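User: These chains co-purify. Model them together.
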Amino acid sequence: MAAVTLEAAHSRAELLHQPRSNKLGLWIFMASETFLFSALISARFITSGVQKPEDLNQALAFGLTCVLLVSSISAYLAEAFIATGHRRAFLAATRVTIVFGLIFIGGVMFEWREALHNFPPGTIYGTAFFSLIGLHAFHVLTGVLGLAVVLNLGALGHFGPSNSWPVEGVVKYWHFVDLMWVIIYPALYLF
Amino acid sequence: MRREWLVVGAIWAALTALGEFVVTTWTMLPEGYSRESHVVNEAYVLLLVMAVPVFAFMVTMLGYSIVAFRHPGATEDGPNLGNNKRVVWIWLAVTAALDLAVLINPGFVGLRDIRGTQSADMAIEVVGQRWSWTVTYENGATSTTEMVVPVDTRIRFDVTSTDVLHSFWVPGFGLKVDAVPGRTTQMYVTTERTGDNADDSRLRVQCAELCGLSHADMAMTVRVVERAEYDAWVEDLKNNPPAAAQQAAGATATTAAGEQNDQQAGAAAGQEG
Amino acid sequence: MRPLFRAIKWGIGGYLLGAVAAWVMAGASGPLNGPIEVTVGFIAGLIGWIFGIGGWNNWGREWFGLPPKDDGKDDWRRYFRFNTDHKVVGVQYLVAFIAVMGIGGIMAMLMRLELARAGTDFMSEETYNKVMSMHGILMVAVAVAGILGSFGNYLIPLMIGAQDMAFPRLNALSFWLIPPVAVALLSAPLLGSFEAGWTAYPPLSVLAPGDGQLLFNMGVIAFGLSSILGGLNILTTVTTMRAPGMTWGRLPIFVWAGFSASLISVLFTQYFAATLVMIQLDRIAGTAFFDAKAGGGTLLYEHLFWFYSHPAVYIMVLPAFGVSLEIITHFSRKPLFAYKAVVGAFLTIVGLSGIVWAHHMFTSGMANYFHAPFMALTEAISIPTGVVFLAAIGTMWKGRIWFTAPMIMATGWVFNFMIGGITGIFHADVATDLQLHDTYFVVAHFHFTIIGGSIMGLLGGTFYWFPKITGRMYNERLGKIFALWVTIGLNVVFLPMFWVGVNGMNRRVAVYPADLQRVNEFISAAAFLLGAGFLLFIGNLLWSAVKGPKASDNPWNASTLEWSVSSPPPHHNFPLLPEVVGHPYEYGRPGARHAVLSTTGATHG
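Assistant: Joint model of the three components:
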């Protein structure tokens, strides 16, 4: 009997701690990731300064930037909808975000095919270009996978206003990945 | 209370005196061949002189506490002295002052003495490649087995590498600089004393940055000679092809680049001196 | 043991699958061991291993809406599976890293055997470089994760009055990332040349033939991931899981030390990962980060690498500061002297550690104007470190010093780390560093800081918490002999290295000038004796863990929370949830209490 109440006490304590821990853990993780990106961004400026080749596909890059920024809005909507209990709207917004993410990845793949001819990885700009965009695209991909898991679980009826942390976490991560792009984009295309 | 501090003070003073005696009389660092190596040695001794009282204090406190305050078993508590702001502030002030002192001399002073003047009487080009050195003198002569430099001359070494990182180090000169692919690094040495690798193994060019298989053997003997002798030698080197120069120098030093060398011969590069 | 076998199967399967897929898609050199195949294979194998050991049951099932599954019972086999109990993870770390230390130690013995003679009498230079690189990276791993992984996981929740870490599954994950890392590192030399040392400086690490470097890179990146996840977990745990009344000002000093070290590992480890990714890309994708001809540069690597690897030495020593101060306090039976100043010093060290990296590069040819500021900043670190020493001697002064094995280790730590610290100034000073950089002086210096600092903390902590972890007492007499053996032996082995260093012996060489042979003979003989001493340590602990006399809950009569529960602690740590009412080190004040175990546990939170 005593053991049972103790277990209950423990799990209750865990429930009280967990949301705070999750939030803090995610923030620490994102801080850590920021350092990873900063290492590669500083490598770009150390090795090749601000020079960039003429034949960058500026239009495509600008378009992809817009896609990613808009996807942040739909991701925010997904989070807001589930927090207020609008499950259908949440699922729709998540789907839209995933589609935006996939468009972005597709766009990057298309751009790489051109870039491989114009400035291959063996050139100094190509080094920065492929490594930075590759690293970022990998993060977008993990974000899409995260969204897919959330979408699947949401479709199975898992989340609600009182239990929206996984959605919130994935969406925060998505915003973070967007933010990194907002730094990478000017570093590679605009300077 | 007061007696304890007297004892500690006495031990500290005695240890400090002993330590200072040792570090000032025992020349741990052998004498170098360049002005820069004297700067290094002086900085080294100065740091030791400054470190001795600190080290002696810690050893005294540690040793005295262990001997005087032994009390086996957890049966009794010590006094509840958790903090003493004055002690902490004094400690911080003393360590900060020491830090500042070290920073000014030998820190900034040493930096000025070594890096201060950027002019030289002559320039020598040094190229590192796995696993040998190529030295090119001002008259265009090159040598790969022995480096000869004149005494009482300020020399600028322009160092670079063709493959991986190396480090151009002559222990007897007290300095080293990395050989970096794609850029030229500079090292200024003012020779002050003649010497021969045959008498002192520290007169050798030694690679000091891990560069792969035969990193340890990437060495070359060094001679510091009188100006006239140098002039004759370098002229001779120019007129006679390197193979002949190798004979003349009688060097058994380094190994051919890229070749898996005979291990014992490689060891000899260091041992010859 | 079933999950373990499953993990091995899935790991190998993953490797094969990844390698074949890479072979088919990239059409590269060899079917299973080309550069791209090794890289992709390692990643796939790592994922397979993690899923096999417990990733699938804990996370994978959840992603598809299935309930998580726990495999196995709580008998001895719990140490061989994905276990979320922080105490199990702590023991896993401790045992694993003592084993890794043993392998690294054998490498050290082999190196000393070779260095006993000036020529290459025992092994070829190629073998020596491999052994040296292996020794380096294994011991760096032990120093980085040895204390933080074992005592950090085992004790931080106990010390702050929590039931477990904030993320128990992540905790298990960060341990189970270690075995594939070990496999990668130990098999790296088999794939050909592996000679760039643990620092892996390019272009050597890019140009070196053979694929050993690839496995090294992947292994170390995975280790970095483990380190980051572990640090993240400790930071979160300390922030959110403290028991009621456990304010920041009441945290035991070891918790502060672990917290500070975790801050560094979470932020800076990414830089090491990034540099190794760059090497990997240079090797397999033909990028030009470190190709001078294309415009890349090696100074880039050195800056980024040391931006992590200098702070990393504080990941190694800060937890040992914590362990040693903890031991000194309890065995002097006095409050920790200048607690607040020490906490301030830890955080100052964390801050300063990030802005001193270029003192490793005084000879690298970087711009001259970098030298003075980096010298100044580096020397400034001696001020907070000095506060830690003040705390040590201030606590011992007028205490009731119980000179047990852990206490010998802790005082030996003060002595040896001080030698390491003082000789560090010779490297911070540009003039002397230009001569001493990359010589045996450096080797002696960092062995005094890392063995004297980190490893002695690990050994001292192992003795100190042994009764808590195993419930049995180690043999005190053997423990004392071993502690003295290490403290003194360290000096016998490494003091002469300062001398050979200033006499022109550079590091990482199998051959050296013959006139230094006599001293090297002496060093080697002393090193064998020091190494043999560790058999005493292993023997003592193994025998005592099984046959040692039963230990009481609090054999040291110490005041911190971990000693208030049974030895070993029960599954959820505290049968009654604790409430902290005072400072942890209130020795000598009658009636002072650190915590009360309240009977109304259910209100906790």
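Residues 32-190 of chain A form a domain with the Four Helix Bundle (Hemerythrin (Met), subunit A) fold (CATH 1.20.120.80).
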